[in-house]
Amino acid sequence: MSRTNLSAMKFSSVYPLYVQKAERKNRSKDEVDQIIRWLTGYSQSELQRQIEEETDFEGFFGQAPRLHPKSSLIKGVVCGVRVEEIEDPLVQKIRYLDKLVDELAKRKAMEKILR
């Protein structure tokens, strides 16, 4: 998927898919929210506001208080691409989030997911 397609996608349309993926593996919405807050620095109320305002991914990450300093430790493959090798900063942030949700769905311990 190209940067244009990813950046224009609404975070609010993808968020329920993250929650569904986690819940299918007996993980919770709260854990998904914790991962998102860890990565972006949003508070729970700020995260909820981003969802309600139907912010696209570009705005979601652009308005994030801060990307977690340990986000560069996120490694692995998402959609056949190594996240640490993605050159576009926005696409890399989106894939970081995808990777963290994947790890949650694979029943990895939160302490390991949040590095």
Plain-language structure description:
Pfam families: DUF2200 (PF09966). This is DUF2200 domain-containing protein. By secondary structure, the protein is mainly alpha-helical. The protein has one domain: Orthogonal Bundle (Helicase, Ruva Protein, domain 3), CATH 1.10.8. Helices cover 59% and strands 3% of the residues. Strand 1 (77-78) and strand 2 (81-82) form a beta hairpin. Helix 2 (11-24) packs parallel to helix 6 (89-105) and helix 3 (29-40) runs antiparallel to helix 6.
Outline of the structure:
This protein is mainly alpha-helical and 115 residues long.
Regarding quaternary structure, what we see is: single chain
Total strands: 2
Distance between the termini: 28 Å
CATH topology: Helicase, Ruva Protein, domain 3
Content-based structural category: mainly alpha
CATH class: Mainly Alpha
Topology summary:
Layout: H1 3-8, H2 11-24, H3 29-40, H4 44-52, H5 57-62, E1 77-78, E2 81-82, H6 89-105, H7 110-113
Helix pairs in contact: 2-6, 3-6
InterPro entries: SP1917_dom_sf (IPR023204), UCP033199 (IPR014580)
Pfam families: DUF2200
Organism: Oricola cellulosilytica
Provide key terms for this protein.
mainly alpha, two-stranded antiparallel sheet, 59% helix, UCP033199, DUF2200 domain-containing protein, SP1917_dom_sf
